[in-house]
Specification:
Blueprint (H helix, E strand, L loop, with lengths): L1 H13 L1 E5 L10 E14 L2 E16 L3 E11 L4 E12 L3 E9 L1 H22 L22
Antiparallel strand pairs: 1-6, 2-3, 2-6, 3-4, 4-5
């Protein structure tokens, strides 16, 4: 049962992807990835990460001038990734180079469902010959050797 739950979780996370958001303001709570045109300094706990070029996380506040993200992942210009548990960063709108929102991908979902369906059919077909035939039920019982009085 646990394997089925883990497998289902892997399929569901594989169905998500990032789609360009364009000039619209993301809704509060939306998961986004923002690439910035000018590197930022981000404070994660007690350390400060310099030259951050990509911030991933949930939108906590958004307006026409800025975007506040509770970050889960930050990438520096050197390519080093930093995980976070909600460190907030404010990004001015004029510094956002590319803004993408996490959404369900239709083709990835279709591919995952198709692969899952094919796997179930393959298991059923391969188990069928192992079950034996259903035509007779086997030989009858042998006669009793001892009769009850």
């Amino acid at each position: 049962m646990r394997i089925a739950v883990c497998g289902c979780g892997i399929f569901l996370t594989a169905c998500l992807g990032y789609a360009p958001l364009g000039p619209t303001t993301p809704a509060r709570g939306a998961e986004i990835a923002a690439s910035v045109s000018a590197p930022l300094d981000v404070r994660i706990g007690e350390i400060t990460v310099h030259d951050v070029t990509l911030a991933q996380g949930r939108v906590t506040y958004a307006d026409a001038e800025s975007l506040v993200i509770a970050g889960t992942r930050f990438v520096s210009a050197a390519g080093t990734e930093y995980a976070s548990l909600g460190s907030t960063v404010t990004i001015p709108r004029n510094q956002i180079g590319d803004l993408k929102q996490r959404r369900v991908s239709a083709w990835k979902t279709a591919l995952a469902l198709g692969a899952g369906g094919a796997a179930i059919v393959a298991i059923i077909v391969s188990v069928g010959p192992l079950a034996g035939s259903s035509s007779g039920g086997g030989p009858g019982k042998p006669p009793a050797s001892v009769q009850a009085p």
